[in-house]
Amino acid sequence: MNWFNFTYLIGIFFCFGCVLFWIRKNRKFQSALSVAAAYDQWTNDQLLEKLWGEHVHLGFYEGGCRRKDFRTAKVDFVHELVKWSGLDRMSRGSRILDVGCGIGGSARILAKEYGFDVIGITISQKQANRAAQLTPVGVNCRFEVMDALDIRFDKGSFDGVWSVEAGPHMLDKQKYADEMLRVLRPGGILAVADWNKRNTKKAKLTTFERIIMRQLLDQWSHPDFSSIDGFCENLLSSKFYGGGIYFDDWTSQTLPSWHESILEGFRRPNDVLSLGPNAIIKGLREVPTILLMRWAFVHGLMRFGVFRARG
Q1: Which residues share a beta bridge with 197?
Q2: How many CB atoms sit inside 10 A of residue 273's CB?
Q3: Which of 55, 98, 99, 112 could form a disulfide with 107 if both were Cys (CB 3.0 to 4.6 A apart)?
Q4: 71 Cα distance to chain centroid
Q5: Hey, which residues does 117 pair with through a beta bridge?
């Protein structure tokens, strides 16, 4: 490890120490209820929505070049995943399930720009309520509170299933894959994008990497990350898998998002200040984790995987 990387990490952990001493708590995963509570709080705070807009996920940057507005990059991410997965070849009126829909940003694009009939599900009641509030009359999508490990729809109910950055919150990765494939009709398309850890079966974590990984898990209510290989195995092992699995690594295309997510606070200071002093404190709390995430993606501890498969 060179001197720059060492000092970068020391700075991050110093920030962690200061912020955690001040706030004195983390968001360590305990159950689906702890995930719901975390997202209820984030939604009530409105800080993420004020800074990042309707899409609480990373953006897409062609060639990894940071030359676009962060919110535009998030919209571009949706279109790139639609095109890469083949969902753009589905007919208007196709039924799509958005698993882990957040406040509905992706679901609204799928409904408005592709003509799909979209149902978004989230573990957070506050997110479902806010998603409904943000959806204009006439846009063909609706939102329900539902656990992704117990999807309350019949087998084969959807032409497509979409899930972006929801997998890290799932305790049982196999069940997560099974449920999405179960509700997908034969020949339907599954499109997933997720944060993934390095394949630790091939290259075990060092002690230092385990310390970093523990912070990445505990600060944002994640039980564990899948590796890209591991999630492919989950899909292949599912009795509902119909074939046609493909995957890719979009780490370089999404990497600028981490710094951009922090810079938005400087670009939109009035949005933060309008929420009061607590918003500033809560925003500062997220900065060390964001920087640590970026470090992990730069150094191969984490990868951004995209997946498509058939029901």
Answers
A1: 227, 302
A2: 11
A3: 98
A4: 15
A5: 95
